[in-house]
Amino acid sequence: MNYSICFLIEGPINSPAYFRAIGMSKALNDQGLNILVVCDDRPQNDSTIADLKGCGIKVYAYPYRPRALGILKCRELLASLNPDWIVQLNPTLKGFLTLIFTSHKVIGEWDEPSILIPQGFIKTIFAYSLHFWLRWRSTIQVSCTKAFLKYLPKAEYISHGQYVPQMKFKKDLHKDGEYFVYLGNFYPLFDHELLIEGLKSASKRGFRPEVVMVGGGPDLERWKNYCLKNNLWNIKFKGYCEMNEWMPILIGASSLLFPMRDTPLNRCRCSSKIFAYLASGRPVIAHRVGEIAELLGQVSYLASPDEDLIKLLEERVYKDIKIENSSINISYEFLAKRFVGIINGAK
């Protein structure tokens, strides 16, 4: 088992989108495989590149700007390295331009698929074109969610793994009393407004629990202003935080909140929030959508998508959740063995 696997990373390597590539590359490296990571040389990648190199993984960087030069240099790198397998996450334009007219064997992985994002006709056609290209180009197809397998009849299912390190985080000693947490960035596609509207309704009933919202994003200021306008002083916005900042907040919470609408995209998403919530050891109140039931079910109160999570919070349903019953194995060490088994079956 001496073949080489190259993880092709297109953007900021520390982005949640690439937690999977980082975790899997480390686990496969620990199993003795020759692991390569190819990414761009933007400054924010430096610390993660150093971490990967410290683990014995070979990292190769190509120019971040200009983009056309970066793609050409990336193609040159791949040609010179000539790995046995290249892992391409999602059907992207940059991935297409990097891999077209090459003979590399490709493992295509689908996570939060763009064909299910609500968008205009032209963008939808473009997304489907890239989707079918990667299906055709991939020797091995991997879906990160069970629901998306219906769009990939020949794919294997390998979920994301636990990216939060097994270390003793301590709860936030600056926070006293009972509070609840939502972890997630504020983007139009996400469902944080379900909580905010639920808290607005609850305030009229006199129920004003302290809810800490952790995350940045383009819609953060809009919702901060909305809460000020509606006198929702019990909602505290922390903004963007690093893991060593938000894990103590999660650990000290009475319960964690996970709203999610029942949409085609959400059914096929495997949110990184799932693994942060699991690592916290706190009970979760969540909508039963997509991978939530599969991975979080043992530590959650699962509500139907039309239920108001804040009403369930008011009923204190989280008190009945028994965290010690959780036994699911989602370590990257475990998932890497399955990954290797699939590759061996395809050779």
Please render the helix and strand layout as text.
Blueprint: E1 4-8, H1 19-30, E2 34-40, H2 46-54, E3 58-62, H3 67-81, E4 85-89, H4 93-99, E5 106-110, H5 121-137, E6 138-143, E7 156-157, E8 180-183, H6 192-204, E9 211-214, H7 220-229, E10 235-239, H8 243-251, E11 255-258, H9 264-267, H10 273-280, E12 284-287, H11 291-296, E13 300-303, H12 309-314, H13 332-346
Short characterization:
The chain is an alpha/beta fold and about 350 residues long. The chain has helices spanning about 20-30, 45-55, 65-80, 95-100, 120-135, 190-205, 220-230, 245-250, 265, 275-280, 290-295, 310-315, 330-345, and strands spanning about 5-10, 35-40, 60, 85-90, 105-110, 140-145, 155, 180-185, 210-215, 235-240, 255-260, 285, 300-305. It has two domains: about 5-160 and about 330-345, Rossmann fold (3-Layer(aba) Sandwich); about 180-325, Glycogen Phosphorylase B (Rossmann fold, 3-Layer(aba) Sandwich).
